[in-house]
Design goal:
Elements lengths: L2 H9 L5 H19 L2 E4 L3 H13 L10 E5 L26 H8 L3 E6 L33 H8 L5 E6 L5 H7 L2 E4 L19 E6 L2 H11 L16 H4 L8 E5 L9 H15 L4 E5 L7 H16 L17 H12 L2 H13 L5 H22 L5 E5 L15 H5 L6 H6 L3 E9 L2 E9 L4 H14 L10
Parallel strand pairs: 2-3, 2-4, 7-8, 7-9
Antiparallel strand pairs: 1-3, 4-6, 5-6, 5-10, 9-11, 10-11
């Protein structure tokens, strides 16, 4: 059942929040052994559902009344372990909840579980979790994408109708594409990062996932908005649900030339052509635009990303919190704690980031990456002088097989080639289900101007309605 249907049925008394949560937990019990989408269940979920019913009886307005939600396990939940998919935080129980969690609970949502993820949100396949890989509901021999793969798989499999992930370089959008659901990354600052464990602070954003645009808008309205606890938070009123009433007629969508040349699979190219045909029938105009600096985006991203990772993860030193492996002195303790607490991909990125920030190399690498980042943003600004929205693939190919890229880090990094530039520029973007390649879903990415997030929802909704949700359905 979809989120908006659950809310309607609960508010009309046709079903209770406890019944909805119980059904979600039963679905999880049925599918979780095959998918491993989750790290842990919330043992208080059914009690929280009962409290939602009491709040409804008091007449409280609850836009997500009784809706089961899963959270990526780098979003802090008071009293419930938050691991970031890492041995380093395997026993970490936060003393507070993230702002987005508080907003969900205020809206009547019930957090039923924490979702599996690539360790500390580093990866593109959810194979780099210390708790084992997640499998794609469409084909359990394939990856769900990453790093929010557990969240995407849970929504795609119908375990829950809604999920939160985080998106540092495509970590909501890419798994959404590979699992056939909607994934939205907002303009930087529109959703609070307070209580979200940092990976790369200038890139990280909380993102939303759902199986319909209507549900995605409902969730995005609830978790967006200004938060004084986040110094990067923007004072912008969310209007996502209202945007669904807007017509897409008259919109201009720019086809990004550099993203449509080589490397895209047949199913992706077919989805692009279908999207164009469907939207032109809705009165949308298409033009070709160019982002000349896009070729530098992946390199610039992995320098900025690793530099900020090196800084943010310095706190895990075996002293203050996290795993502690005692040694003969403080240096040995730190080295042993990091060796046993961090997996190979996290260690690799810390080393890369430390190198690009080191004396003698800072300007050659980090300084140059920052200049490339500025050029990328300027190119986006020029493109948006010609178009209201931009269109690219979300991923150049559908879900790949488990183990196919884990031995080749550069190949894994290339899975993010269509998404990282959006984070570097701080722009909003959404992956929409737009087709299939064989039995595997394919996603396309709509990119909007900063603070014009709602315009993306209007276009995505027009496509969904025109195709009668043909590409957004539960996998199992």
């Amino acid at each position: 059942m979809l989120a908006h249907e659950i809310v309607k049925n609960i508010q009309s008394g046709q079903v209770s929040p406890q019944e909805v949560v119980s059904a979600s937990l039963q679905r999880i019990a049925q599918l979780e052994p095959r998918l491993h989408a989750l790290i842990r269940l919330n043992p208080q979920a059914e009690q929280e559902a009962a409290l939602v019913e009491q709040r409804l009886a008091r007449g409280e307005p609850l836009p997500l009344a009784g809706v089961p939600v899963v959270l990526k396990d780098n979003i802090c939940t008071q009293g419930l372990t938050t691991t970031c998919g890492s041995r380093m935080l395997a026993d970490f129980v936060p003393p507070y909840s993230a702002t987005v969690v508080e907003k969900l609970r205020q809206a009547g949502a019930v957090v039923v579980a924490k979702a599996n993820m690539d360790e500390f949100a580093m990866g593109s396949s959810t194979e780099y979790s210390a708790f084992g890989p997640t499998r794609n509901p469409w084909d359990t021999e394939r990856v769900p994408g990453g790093t929010s793969g557990g969240s995407a798989a849970a929504v795609a499999a119908g375990m829950v109708p809604l999920a939160l992930g985080t998106d540092t370089g495509g970590s909501v959008r890419q798994p959404a594409a590979l699992c056939g659901v909607y994934g939205f990354k907002p303009t930087y600052g529109r959703i609070s990062r307070y209580g979200v464990v940092a990976t790369a602070s200038s890139l990280d954003q909380v993102g939303t996932m759902a199986r319909t645009v209507q549900d995605l808008a409902l969730l995005s309205d609830v978790v967006s908005g200004y938060d004084p606890m986040d110094s990067t938070s923007l004072e912008v009123q969310p209007q996502f649900a209202a945007a669904l009433q807007a017509s897409s007629r008259g919109l201009t969508i720019g086809l990004v030339k550099e993203a449509l040349t080589v490397g895209n699979s047949a199913g992706v190219l077919e989805a692009l052509e279908r999207f164009r045909s469907v939207m032109e029938a809705q009165g949308v105009r298409f033009v070709e635009v160019s982002l000349p600096s896009l070729e530098y985006a992946l390199a610039a991203y992995y320098i900025v990303n690793t530099a900020e990772i090196s800084s943010n993860l310095a706190r895990y030193d075996g002293t203050l919190y996290g795993l502690r492996v005692p040694g003969d002195d403080s240096t040995t303790t730190m080295m042993q704690s990091r060796e046993h607490g961090f997996g190979p991909e996290v260690q690799r990125r810390i080393l890369m980031g430390t190198f690009v920030l080191s004396s003698g190399y800072y300007e050659a690498y980090y300084g140059k990456a920052l200049r490339a980042r500025a050029r990328i943003k300027a190119d986006f600004d020029r493109a948006f002088s010609e178009a209201d929205l931009l269109l690219t693939p979300t991923s150049p190919f559908p879900a790949f097989r488990l183990g196919e890229k884990t031995t080749d880090p550069l190949s894994m990094y290339l899975a993010d080639i269509d998404t990282v530039a959006v984070n570097l520029a701080g722009l909003p973007a959404m992956s929409i289900p737009a087709g299939f390649e064989g039995h595997l879903p394919v996603g396309l990415q709509l990119i909007g101007k900063a603070l014009h997030d709602e315009q993306i929802f209007a276009a995505a909704n027009a496509f969904e309605q025109a195709t009668e949700r043909a590409f957004a359905r539960a996998a199992i």
